[in-house]
Amino acid sequence: MTFEEIVKFHGHLCPGVTSGHLLSKYALELIDAKYGDNLYCVAEAKNCMLDGIQCTTGCTIGKGNLAIENMGKFALTLVKGDTGDGVRIIADTSSVQAESKPELAKKLMEIDFKALCKVEKAHVEIPPKNMGNTIVCENCGEKFSDLFKIEKDAKTICPACAK
Predict the structure, then answer these.
(1) Stated pTM of the model
(2) What distance in Å separates the CA atoms of residue 70 and residue 159, rounded to the nearest whole number?
(3) Which DSSP symbol is given to 142?
(4) pLDDT for 82-94, tens place per residue?
C-alpha cells in the first residue's frame, strides 16, 4: 500500500499511523523482508500505530502474527516467522515539533526518521496459532474454542458464563 492508501484505510493523518508505517518500513529493510513475508510483529502500543504496522508489514491480529504488548511506546519488534530473529525499533519523536498532529505526521515523513530510532537485535518465541477445537457451551449454547473451556458444576462452559 502507498502511504496515502494507509492514511485512507486508517481514516486520518496522524503521528501514530505515520510512525507505525515508518518503523515497519525500517524494520523490513533491516531484516531483509517485504510485505506479506512470513513475519511476526510485537507492537508496544495500542493506538493508531497498529494500522501503519498492519498495512506496511502484512502482520495482522486476525492472522495471529501481530501481538500487542501495550506499554505506550512508539516501538515494535519485527522478526522472521521461521527463526524468530529480527529487530526491535523504538522511535523518539520528541525533538520534532509541529503545531498540529497532522503537521507533525507530515514532518515525520519529510525528515530522516531513522535518525530518531534506536535499533537492537531481537528474538521472539512465536506462539503457536492453534485455536483449538470448537465446542458448545453447555450453559449459553454458543460455540467457542476448547482452549478457553471451564469446567464448573460438572458442565463445560465458556468464560463469559463462568463470570
Answers:
(1) 0.84
(2) 23
(3) -
(4) 999 999 999 999 9
